[in-house]
Amino acid sequence: MSFYAENGSNEAGGFFTNFFTGGNSLLQDNDKEGPALKAWLNDEKFVNGGITGNRPVLILHLSDSSGINTSTTGIGHDITVTMDNDNTRFYVLNDFYEADQDSYQKGKVRFQLPEMTAGEHRLHIKAWDVLNNSGEAFLDFSVVNEGELAISRVLNYPNPFTTKTQFWFEHNRQGQELQVRIRIFTLSGRIIKTLKKQ
User: pTM, whole model, 2 decimals?
Assistant: First the structure.
């Protein structure tokens, strides 16, 4: 960068070369890691490979010690999701990013995915920190038609139990109220308890 100055009777000139452009920093040598990404569909209980309806909500938690890049000045350095490795189904999520209160290092994204066909799908999520390090995550899932109720990954924990256990299952009716009936059997097949919950 060169400088020129004059005051009517005197002229001066100079230059300065100790600066960076394009988002680089001397701190970059200390940080080689991109943002850590955690991804779910519909809620934070979702398990990678699980099932969902045809309009799931992508939930991301991002963190990076240098800060999350949401600027649009770095070409290609956005928070993005690509569906099924198809570059025509590519979405920039910068506008959906919300930093955690009083933090430039952590934040969240909630993004309503477009309607999806039944079957297996994969999301490729990518984000950058302010020092141009990238991080990525993949999320695999199956879309089941909303017209039919689908349940998977049914389990209870602890099992076996003496006085208390919790029941868990996945379903494709996110956001809908369900009536659930659970029957508990002995090993010999006798019903010992029926639970009903709405």
Answer: 0.71
